[in-house]
What does this fold into?
Amino acid sequence: STQSHGNQSINNMASPIDRSQLDKAVTALIKHIANSNEGPQDLLETADYISLIIGLRKIPDKSKTKPVRVDIAHSLYTDDAEMCLFVKDPQKEFKAKFEQAPVKGLTKVIGISKLRSNYKQYEAKRKLCSAFDLFLTDERVLPLLPMLLGKTFFQKKRQPVPVDLTKKDLVAEITKARDSTYLHMSQGPCCALRVAKTSFSKEQILANTLQAIDSAVDKIPRKWKNIQSIHIKTSDSIALPIYNALGGEGTVIQPAVDSE
It folds into this structure.
């Protein structure tokens, strides 16, 4: 897309990712996924996420609760993914908007006061957390959510992604939010983002990974100068290296070659 070219000029540095190293890591990951799936379970039932772990040189000043939107070519959600949206009060105003312009998959809209009164108990929060594929929130109420939703959402990485409900075209805004991925900046030296599903083809995994790296690095302060390492993994695999800056800024570790 034209966007990525624009990013490179801002970045003043083409992506230093070694394609052959990325290819090796993704091939090894696919092999691991195939071995894990040899049990009797249905592949679709167990489709897991593939994530990038980005190691930073400089720890961010403070943890951001707002996930940063990152573009990817292939959405992690299908068109029939069920979404729940948290909105500011009055809830009925937004429900009316979505009745006029329905968004496929948006099956529940919950206002802040409803969330506060109906989902007080841990059990209610746990049920809500597992009832939808994706949670979205009006970005104006995002700061209230950690307290109202409790730890479960954040531990399970189900934190709602922010949308701008002041936009005219809400269908486009919510679809874009669904079809992007999100960089979660923490207080530690690493940040993570999901880039693919284990059910994706190798081409889809590679396309998403390359695009996500470009887009994510562009949103990290100091960009490539602040990137120490990038690894790729599934929830139960080891982290496979894709990139490592050695002493200098932007030195690529070459894949190990047998010394025969």
Remarks:
- Residues 254 and 260 are 17 Å apart (CA to CA).
- The radius of gyration is 20 Å.
